[in-house]
């Protein structure tokens, strides 16, 4: 096994990894390229301020300038504050409620929007319908069981934007704090959800906001709704931000990245590590090591600590999804599958590569989407991806 000399990625766990002559991995190089493309500090601030001026100008006849997705987590809460107080924008907060929010997340959203005096747009999905979609993904045996939550969130942002004629959406991603996940770990698109739900679901999709290609293109190409990731231009100390949010807004920490929602918590802390041997802490800690907020030695030590998991959540998942213990065990041990085993938009995205390149240049889709989703897989890529299924060591029961 080779471990990167800079971060903690290794070639046993991380697919598609390669190393340069100094033993630095390809993901660290990818990080350095992103760093160059998205500067922080004074330069980043200058870019953000210019961006804010354009956004204000475009929104001058509207009630709101920008839609900001909020989950109740640290990054999105901070972004809301930053947009309003630092950039002087008039945001509309948008939230997709998949009915699995933690109590703390709900309180955080309420506290921060009230104290900042920001209106909130929420799309709530029917809970039985969502559970049916969620359960289908378990039966499909893929890693992407939280994809419906991510797609629901993306669509909700567009729905909020369209309702009020808003031209900009801020997304809370940050490659500096979240890291870079390898291709093949996660895949999402509307057809993927539909295919899996058609095959394994039992009820109709009525309230779930799916991001159908047609309306997505209409919203982005015709309505020109732009997606921006402002956190790419800010280098912030997460611990300091957490303390600031606590002091100013009565915000509460829920004990881990992406844990504001119970499906996300279950996915990252139980399902992915147990079934696929995917441990997102590798991405997160490596990200901290690359930015210097954690030493490599500390990360290598910390990763050895066992993942903490609240078994009450497992019981709740089984209960709400109506899984018997044996049925659930069967699912955890079923042969692993990937998005390649199901019908998705991927072949279509590949054919539309040029259009998506233009969309990326016009800032209508993030660069990462263009790179990841429109690239035609070579035979080598496919071999690598399919290898993923065996790549994950067998689960220990
Ligand atoms: Zn590395």
Describe the protein.
- With 397 residues, the protein is mostly helical.
- A five-stranded parallel beta sheet has the order 3-2-1-4-5.
- The longest helix is centred in the first third of the chain and has 18 residues.
- The radius of gyration is 21 Å and the shape is globular.
- It is built from 19 helices and five strands.
- 53% of the residues lie in helices and 6% in strands.
- The protein has a single domain, classed as Rossmann fold.
- Bound molecules: zinc ion.
- Zinc ion binds next to α1.
What name does the CATH topology carry? Rossmann fold
For the sheet with most strands, the description reads: 5 strands, parallel
Helical content (DSSP H or I, runs of 4+): 40-55%
What is the CATH homology-level superfamily? HUPs
Layout of secondary structure:
Layout: H1 26-37, H2 41-58, E1 66-69, H3 74-86, E2 91-97, H4 103-116, E3 120-124, H5 127-140, H6 147-163, E4 168-170, H7 175-178, H8 190-200, H9 213-222, E5 226-228, H10 238-249, H11 262-276, H12 281-291, H13 296-302, H14 311-320, H15 325-333, H16 346-351, H17 353-361, H18 367-373, H19 379-391
Parallel strand pairs: 1-2, 1-4, 2-3, 4-5
Helix pairs in contact: 3-4, 3-10, 5-8
The structure holds zinc ion.
The site of zinc ion has 8 residues, from helix 1.
Q: Which characteristics define this entry?
A:
397 residues, binds zinc ion, Rossmann fold, 19 helices, 5 strands
């Amino acid at each position: 096994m080779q471990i990167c000399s800079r971060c903690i990625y290794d070639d046993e766990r991380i697919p598609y990894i390669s190393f340069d002559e100094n033993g630095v991995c390809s993901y660290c190089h990818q990080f350095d390229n992103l760093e160059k493309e998205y500067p922080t500090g004074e330069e980043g601030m200058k870019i953000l301020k210019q961006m804010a001026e354009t956004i204000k100008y475009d929104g001058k006849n509207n009630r709101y300038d920008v839609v900001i997705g909020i989950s109740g987590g640290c990054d999105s809460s901070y972004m809301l504050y930053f947009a309003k107080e630092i950039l002087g924008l008039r945001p509309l907060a948008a939230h997709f409620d998949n009915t699995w929010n933690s109590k703390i997340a709900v309180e955080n959203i309420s506290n921060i929007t009230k104290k900042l005096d920001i209106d909130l747009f929420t799309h709530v999905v029917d809970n039985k319908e969502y559970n049916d979609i969620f359960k289908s993904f378990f039966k499909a045996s893929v890693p992407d069981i939280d994809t419906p939550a991510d797609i629901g969130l993306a669509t909700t942002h567009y729905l909020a934007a369209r309702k009020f004629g808003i031209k900009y959406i801020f997304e809370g991603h940050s490659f500096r704090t979240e890291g870079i996940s390898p291709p093949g770990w996660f895949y999402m698109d509307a057809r993927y959800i539909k295919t899996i739900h058609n095959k394994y679901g039992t009820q109709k999709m009525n309230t779930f906001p799916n991001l159908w290609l047609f309306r997505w293109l209409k919203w982005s190409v015709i309505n020109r709704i732009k997606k921006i990731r402002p956190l790419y231009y800010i280098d912030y100390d997460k611990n300091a931000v957490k303390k600031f949010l606590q002091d100013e807004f009565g915000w509460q920490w829920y004990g881990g990245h992406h844990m504001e929602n119970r499906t996300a918590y279950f996915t990252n802390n139980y399902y992915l590590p147990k079934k696929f041997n995917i441990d997102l802490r590798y991405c997160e800690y490596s990200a901290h090591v690359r930015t210097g907020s954690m030493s490599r030695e500390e990360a290598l030590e910390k990763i050895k600590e066992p993942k903490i998991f609240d078994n009450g959540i497992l019981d709740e998942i089984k209960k709400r999804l109506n899984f018997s213990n044996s049925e659930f065990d069967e699912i955890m041990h079923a042969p692993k599958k990937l998005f390649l085993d199901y019908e998705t938009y991927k072949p279509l995205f590949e054919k539309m590569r040029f259009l998506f390149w233009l969309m990326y240049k016009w800032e209508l889709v993030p660069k990462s989407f263009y790179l990841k989703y429109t690239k035609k897989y070579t035979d080598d890529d496919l071999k690598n991806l399919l290898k993923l299924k065996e790549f994950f060591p067998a689960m220990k029961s």
